[in-house]
Amino acid sequence: MTSAKLFDKLRSLMEKAEHADNKHIKKLRKVLHKLKDRQKELEQNLAATTDVEKQARIRQEIDVIRLQRSKGAEVYQAIKADRRARKAAKAARN
After folding, report:
1. CB 62 within 8 A of CB 42
2. Residue bearing the bigger pLDDT, 91 or 32
3. Which of 1, 6, 61, 68 is the most exposed, fewest CB within 10 Å of its CB?
């Protein structure tokens, strides 16, 4: 899957984060893992490439992926924290 498709998928999952269920969380994790794999692949390509222009493009793409992964991770952690808080509140009421 290309980086652009992964970014689109991540964006759509982050937009729907308010109504997250277990399936949604798993999809978000899956996309984050795919982005991590794509980043590792690009870092290997960077090490193998000697062309300066290609290296610059690869570095730029790695930076974008790193930024998107951090945004996605923040949303994921916020969803998990919200779910834990709701679960604790529900348990406290009982």
Report:
1. yes
2. 32
3. 1
